[in-house]
Amino acid sequence: MEYRKLGRSGLKTSEIALGSWLTYGTATERDAAIACVHRAYELGINHFDCANMYGATPHAAEDVLAEALKDFSRSSYILTTKAFWPVGPGPNDRGLSRKHITEQVHESLRRLKTDYLDIMYCHRYDPETPVDETLRALDDLVTQGKVLYIGISEWTAAQVMEGVATTRQLGLDPITASQPVYNMLTRRIEAEELPVAAREGIGIVAFSPLAQGLLTGKYRPGQVPAGSRAADPTVNRFINRYLTDENLAKVDKLRPIAQDHGLSLAQLALAWILRLPGVSSALIGATRTEQVDDNAGAAGVKLSEAVLRAIDDILNG
């Protein structure tokens, strides 16, 4: 496993991180989820991502992750979670108010059975709460030692700059991590968000790097493999937007490039993301240990300029 700094911070994260969206506490059986976490740890993955709303019920995925990590030294891994989306019916059971953030951090600490979170993410931008209220609350949690680094997820470049300007003006702890969707088929962050993150020293943790599994190559036109996300009506809305003839054709053209370089298609897609120095980690999801093994094999892979040009020709074609 290879490791990179999280933005300009001193925190070092494995190039491959393991997430729990749509998997742990929901589609994946508890034993299988724990096996994936254990295998990831054995392979040197030190970054485990979660959120308060992941799972069949709020905090369910955090319960599974706590069980999976209980036998490992807390100092040996990075543990993250998030808040924003509704976790209850009340008007304050959502958003990024001081009340909601504070309550959710304490609940996540309890469910994860830990004294601190390495990264606490604002799961989205909250237009109903002043940014200074949100960032002051997170700064207070950093001062209390309950959060080490502040993160954001799916904020636009303008929203990121608003947050950065607020932390500077008020002397608050900086935004250190950004978690946007980024993969070969979704590249919108390249225009603005990536340059802003690089300039401000914010590390990118790219989620959905395999486009919900499409970039593993298991999908073919008119075919939905049994047991796949596309076959699960509770989560297939996330992959359905990728399942177009155009995208499937691009995936087919990428296959020989991966094969010629002794890589799986998933490894090629992950190595492509990690080509950028501003990307600190690619956040995978896995339901089987074999997937963890394969994805971890992308760490340290360097793609030549010729290969990158060939990939861009396919993606832009």
Question: Quick summary of this structure?
Answer:
The chain is 38% helix and 15% strand. The chain has 317 residues and is of the alpha/beta class.
Task: Tell me about this structure.
This protein has about 325 residues and is of the alpha/beta class. Helix content is about 40%, strand content about 15%. It has eleven helices and ten strands. The chain has helices at about 30-40, 60-70, 100-110, 130-145, 155-170, 195-200, 235-240, 245-260, 265-275, 290-295, 305-315, and strands at about 5, 10-15, 15-20, 45-50, 80-85, 115-120, 145-155, 175-180, 205, 280-285. It has an eight-stranded parallel β-sheet, with helices on one face. It has a two-stranded antiparallel ribbon with strand order 1-2. Strand 8, helix 6 and strand 9 form a beta-alpha-beta unit. Helix 1 (about 30-40) crosses helix 2 and helix 5 (about 155-170) packs parallel to helix 6 (about 195-200). The protein is globular. The mean pLDDT is about 95.
* Strands in their spatial order, largest beta sheet: 3-10-9-8-7-6-5-4
How many helices does DSSP assign?
A: 11
Ranges where pLDDT stays below 50 over 5 or more residues in a row are none
Provide the β-strand percentage band: 5-15%
The pLDDT mean sits at 93
Provide the descriptors you would attach to this structure in a database record.
317 residues, alpha/beta, eight-stranded parallel beta sheet, two-stranded antiparallel ribbon, 11 helices, 15% strand, globular
